[in-house]
Amino acid sequence: MWLIYPSISTVAMVGMFAVLSVAAIIIFFKFIKPNMKDKDGTHYMNAIGHVTHAERDEPTTGTIQFSVPVMGNQQWAAASKTDLDVGENYEVVGFDKAKNCFLIEKL
Q1: 63 with 78: CB under 8 angstroms?
Q2: Contact status, residue 85 vs residue 51, Cβ threshold 8 Å
Q3: Are residues 31 and 48 in the same domain?
Q4: Are 50 and 76 in contact (CB under 8 A)?
Q5: CATH code at 74?
Q6: Domain that includes residue 24, residue range
Q7: Are residues 32 and 49 in the same domain?
Q8: 63 in Cβ contact with 75 (< 8 Å)
């Protein structure tokens, strides 16, 4: 603002900065953030990956690997209603937020 109004006081500049900063924060949280994709796994429904590891104690849980990183990682924990077969392709049918793992079904 100093270039536009060279005679403006420092207090006025700081005040305008504070008002514009609060306005930018309100605009971001009201209009921009709601349009951002959420990171809860629902965007990756029907993604296909292959199981790389099945737990011995609990054969319905293991690790699935995708050819393209999903939410920043290529490998994710996975759970299924049936026993997992290592090396087989599975499809993502959901995301368990409590366990932070994908719910998968065999193709």
Answers
A1: yes
A2: yes
A3: no
A4: no
A5: 2.40.50.140
A6: 1-36
A7: no
A8: yes
Which residues have CB under 8 Å from 79's CB, separation 6+? 60, 61, 96, 99, 101, 102, 103, 104
Residue 77 parent element (H or E): strand 73-79
Count of domains forming the chain: 2
Count H helices, E strands: the chain? 1, 5
Does residue 15 share a domain with residue 63?
no
pTM of the model: 0.60
Please classify residue 104 by burial: count the beta carbons closer than 10 Å to its beta carbon, then call 0-12 exposed, 13-18 middle and 19+ buried: buried
* Structure confidence by residue, pLDDT tens digits, 45-65: 888 999 999 988 888 899 999
- Each residue of 16-45: pLDDT tens digit? 999 999 999 999 888 877 666 655 556 778
Q: Do residues 92 and 104 touch, judged by C-beta distance below 8 A?
A: yes
